[in-house]
Each structure stands twice: as C-alpha cells, then as structure tokens.
Amino acid sequence: MSTTSPAANRWTDKLPATVNTTVHRLAIASLASQIGIIITGGAVRLTKSGLGCSQWPNCVPGSMTPVAEMGIHGLIEFGNRLLTFILAAIAVAMIVSIWRMRSTHKTIYRLSIALLAVIPAQAVIGGITVWSNLNPWVVSLHFLVSAALVMAATLLVNRTGALRRGETSLGAPAGATQRFLAWTMFAASALALVLGTIVTGTGPHAGDADAPRHMFDPYIVTRIHVVPVYLLVAATLVALVLAFRHAAEAKLRTPLLLLAGVVLLQGVIGYVQHFTGLPILLVLAHMLGASLLAAAAVNVWDRTTGKFPF
C-alpha cells in the first residue's frame, strides 16, 4: 500500500513529465549563475574587499551582517555571500523541475544534485579563505571548484537542450582524430586555468593589502601559463580545419567556433592586461573569459567524445 498522501501526489503531478523549455531555461540559469558568482568573486578581490567581512560564517564578530565600520568593502563581500543563496535557489528549482524524471533521466538529475551539493562545500572553502587571510592556494581552490561547476552546468545545458528537442543523444562520437583533439583541448584548457590561478596568486590583486602572495617570479609563471594556451590554439585550429573539411563532423563546427572565439578573446585580453599593468576591469574581463573557456572546452569535449553519460 502506498504511503504517499493524495496532496503530495497532486503536487508532484503538476511538475513536468518531460524536459520542456522551462527545464532547459533553468539549466541555462544554473550555468549563468555559476559564471556570475565567479565574476562577483573576482570583483570582491579586485576591489580589495576580500576581508570586507573579517569572519565566517559571521561577517564580523557577533554579527552576520556588515557594520558601518567595514565600509563599502563589507557591503561588497557580504553581497557576494548573499549570492550563494540565489545559486542554491536555482539549483533547488532545477531539481524540483526534473523530479518526476529522476528515474528516467538519471544523468541530468545527478548533475542537478551535484550543483546543489557543492554549494555548501564552496561556502566552507570561502570560510577557509577568510580564516587563512586570503591564502592564494585556497583562493585558487575556490575558483577552480567554481570552474568545475561551470563545466557541470554546461553538461546539464547540453542534455536538457537535446531532450527538449526530442533527441536522445548529442549525436554519434566523432572520429578518432577529433576525439584526440577534444581531449587535448580539454586538458590544455584545464591546465591553463590551473596555471592561471598561480599567475593570479603571484600578481598584485590579492583582495587585501595584508594578504599573502606567492613568491614566484611573475614573468616566469606567466610564460609557463601560456604554454598550454599555445597547445590549445593549435589543437583548436586543427580541429576546425577537419570539421570544415569533413561533412560528417559538421555538428562540431559551431562548438569549435565558439571555443576559438573565447580563446582569441582571452588571448587579446591576457596580453593587453599584461602590458598595461593589470587594470582591474581587464582582469575582471579575463576572469569572465576563463569561465567561458571552461564552458566552451567541456562543450566541445562533450559533443566530440560522447564519454559523459547522456
């Protein structure tokens, strides 16, 4: 005998039974919010508001909210903390929207659960960031976890988009050469993101005047950072040529063009910011580019290899 109440049944009956436009839009909102929290986190650091709230989970001793003495920096840091609740609300809405499909579309359900489950972990990492006085290694971890969430949200968008169109896959995997190139692009992008955090941790934008910095040579770590970028550029160009030469790989043209555009944009911003003394608006644009790179690279990998479950 079922123990589910009629009221509960009526509530769940109102939820979507198939992936529709609303579900897909929630997936897009998940991706946009994950990118957005990276940008706002960057703004906290670039405005030297990293310790605008000097405690965690309280903002200041004895208060969850900033006090007048903290000034604008307290408001900026506390505002970024509040955005976590928006991420959580979107993640919960995503799970609710696919609740009736959790047994038939297990991958999108698990991705949705992961996006929600990591939010508390990110909050804890944020707390450790404050407790460690903005240690650059912890700050790097905070960003890299967010980049991984951007990738997960991209996988979610791909699947909800295909299901909304009535498709049951992203298409057959590409040929061996394209698969190799996709793995290369994915690995090079990931390495560039990791090394980029080391460059950032060596640079001047610490988030607070007293925050520790890496003691590396800025010139050397910057040179090392661009090595995987060059590999990424080469692999992307080869993949594009192959995709336009072979009609069977036409489905990869748009994802590859998007990746190429992001890489070009990142390269231009990266060089300009380097030779102009790292102005904060360009650094913030570079962080946006890093987020878009994470999404574009995993999008190409996903559509090319077919390795992630649909």
Give an overview in words.
With 310 residues, the protein is an all-alpha fold. Helices cover 71% and strands 0% of the residues. It has helices at residues 6-13, 21-46, 71-97, 106-131, 136-164, 176-202, 218-245, 253-275, 280-305. The model has no long low-confidence stretch (mean pLDDT 93).
Number of strands: 0
Order of helical and strand elements: HHHHHHHHH
Helix content: over 70%
Q: Report the sheet-strand fraction.
A: under 5%
Structural class: mainly alpha
In short:
The protein is an all-alpha fold. It has helices at residues 6-13, 21-46, 71-97, 106-131, 136-164, 176-202, 218-245, 253-275, 280-305.
Question: Can you tag this structure with a few keywords?
Answer:
single chain; 310 residues; mainly alpha
Set down the secondary structure blueprint.
Elements: H1 6-13, H2 21-46, H3 71-97, H4 106-131, H5 136-164, H6 176-202, H7 218-245, H8 253-275, H9 280-305
Helix pairs in contact: 2-3, 2-5, 2-9, 3-4, 4-5, 5-6, 5-9, 6-7, 6-9, 7-8, 8-9
